[in-house]
Write a structure and sequence with these properties.
The complex is a heterodimer of chains A (61) and B (398). Chain A is of the alpha+beta class and 61 residues long. Chain A is 16% helix and 23% strand. The longest helix of chain A is centred in the first third of the chain and has 5 residues. Chain B is of the alpha/beta class and 398 residues long. In chain B, strands 1, 2, 8, 9, 10, 11, 17 and 18 form an eight-stranded mixed β-sheet that branches. Chain B has a seven-stranded mixed β-sheet with strand order 6-5-13-14-15-12-16. In chain B, helix 6 packs antiparallel against helix 7. Chain B starts with a strand and ends with a helix. At the A-B interface, helix 1, strand 2 and helix 2 of A face helix 4, strand 12 and strand 16 of B.
Chain lengths: 61, 398
């Protein structure tokens, strides 16, 4: 499991917008809890779209 | 809860509720599962809907109508205001709903029609058999299980993971995902009869900022910006906070929510063997307004009808279920989505100067009809010198 994606749970509004744009289907919103379930390729799309800035990808270009 | 139904509906929003209600009324055994512990909450919506559209599906009830809207105003970057008045236009404007109550009412109606409803239960993966969807693996309050069904209707909203895991591409391109934030504010000076839309690249790049009244001195104040314009320091929340600080510095915040609105084209195909996709999950949101409730109700009901027909005929293959896909695509709604996607693609290219020019040109017009189409027609009529520039809009209308 990759640790390249960091979820700031204090910021996250658990809205699922990141889930819909993830090209790898790696994210899952479980009730009120965003979870990295699949393989993150660190593309950074989820971090871009987040309305709150709750996601951080360590090696984003 | 049984483990085998005629129809399994995944998601308890308006699309899922209408699908479940329609299918149950037709005499099918129906199960609707919702991953959240409560139907209707948290809200992910600005809650506006056209009156005519809503009345097609449910009788308006003051219990879930927050405000009755008489006019809409579009405010250009330079402050020019295009005002659309109900008493001048031939049709009614709309309502701002209370989605927490509205969604519950719809699911209650589905339950009353005979559907089973199970909350805090999520579908993890489709159960597949020879390439066809035959049900869903679920986790119900922590307990794994499976529900088999002749047809699964995926109404799982913006995330749309069920259809994706059944092999349909539901991924929304970044540029077509509106990144949204909204505050329910009170103690603010607003026009309680007007929905206001603020345009401009410094206010809401490639989107708009809205004020939708929820009663006197109370409103949903929200914003959507294109995902490709979203970055640190200029996210939806940052734009919204700047607007609120300037316009409603003394307002009080009752609720702060975020969400994504897919304004891409609809899924290439909204059915597969044993599977139908409805509402936001099918990407049938209006690309210009971002409105999704009416289209969710429409596709939900149609899917419920077609699923019932197919089950009665003993054929739930993709070919049989295609009646749903072609049905909505050939409808007025399908045509409006296709047209408004093109209109949106034109509008996102405009800088503030052009937005101002266009707004100035129709600010004094008295529109006979309250619609995107009427506004586009007026823009083309009033800007003969921009005939080349506006070709994209003309093409969209044809």
């Amino acid at each position: 499991m990759s640790t390249m994606l960091r979820i700031n749970r204090d910021k996250c509004g658990y809205c699922g917008t990141c889930v819909a744009v993830c090209p790898e289907d790696a994210l899952e919103l479980i009730d009120a809890y965003l979870s990295l379930e699949g393989e993150c390729i660190a593309c950074g799309i989820c971090a871009r779209v987040c309305p709150l800035g709750a996601l951080e990808v360590s090696n984003e270009e | 809860m049984k483990s085998k139904y005629d129809i399994l509906v995944i998601g308890g929003g308006p699309a899922g509720a209408l699908a479940a209600k329609t299918a149950a009324e037709a005499g099918n055994t129906v199960c609707l599962i919702e991953k959240r512990p409560a139907i209707g909450a948290p809200v992910r919506c600005a809650e506006g809907i056209g009156k005519d559209l809503l009345k097609e599906y449910v009788k308006p009830d003051p219990r879930w109508i927050s405000a009755d809207i008489e006019r809409a105003r579009i405010i250009a970057p330079n402050g020019t205001t295009i005002s659309l008045e109900q008493d001048k236009a031939g049709n009614e404007v709309g309502y701002v709903l209370d989605r927490k109550i509205f969604d519950r009412e719809l699911v209650w109606q589905a339950a009353e029609a005979g559907a089973d409803v199970i909350v805090k239960t999520r579908a993890t993966t489709p159960i597949m058999e020879n390439g066809a969807v035959r049900g869903a693996n679920i986790i119900s309050i922590g307990t794994p299980g499976e529900i088999l069904a002749d047809v699964v209707i995926a109404a799982d909203g913006v995330e749309a993971q069920f259809a994706r895991r059944a092999g349909l591409d539901t991924t929304v391109p970044l540029r077509d995902m509106m990144s949204c934030a909204q505050y329910l504010m009170t103690d603010i000076d607003i026009d309680a009869g007007s929905t206001d839309f603020y345009l401009g690249n410094t206010i809401a790049p490639e989107g708009y900022l809205w004020i939708f009244p929820k009663g006197d001195r109370t409103a949903n104040v929200g914003i959507g910006i294109s995902g490709r314009r979203s970055r640190d320091g200029s996210r939806a929340k940052d734009y919204l906070d700047r607007f609120v600080a300037k316009n409603f510095p003394n307002g009080k915040m009752i609720e702060a929510i975020v969400g994504g609105v897919p304004v891409c084209r609809p899924l290439e195909c909204t059915v597969a063997d044993g599977l139908m996709v409805v509402g936001d999950a099918a990407r049938v949101v209006d690309p210009i307004t971002g409105g999704g409730i009416g289209n969710a109700l429409f596709t939900g009901r149609l899917a419920g009808q077609v699923a019932s027909d197919c089950i009665a005929a003993g054929d739930c293959s993709k070919g049989a279920l295609m009646a749903y896909d072609t049905g909505w695509r050939n409808s007025k709604m399908g045509a409006a989505i296709e047209r408004n996607y093109k209109v949106k693609e034109y509008f996102v290219t405009l800088d503030d100067a052009k937005l101002n020019t266009l707004a100035d040109s129709i600010a004094s017009a008295s529109l006979k009809e309250f619609s995107v189409r009427a506004i586009i027609k007026e823009l083309i009529k009033r800007n003969p010198k921009m005939i080349l520039e506006l070709k994209a809009l003309r093409d969209a209308l044809s």
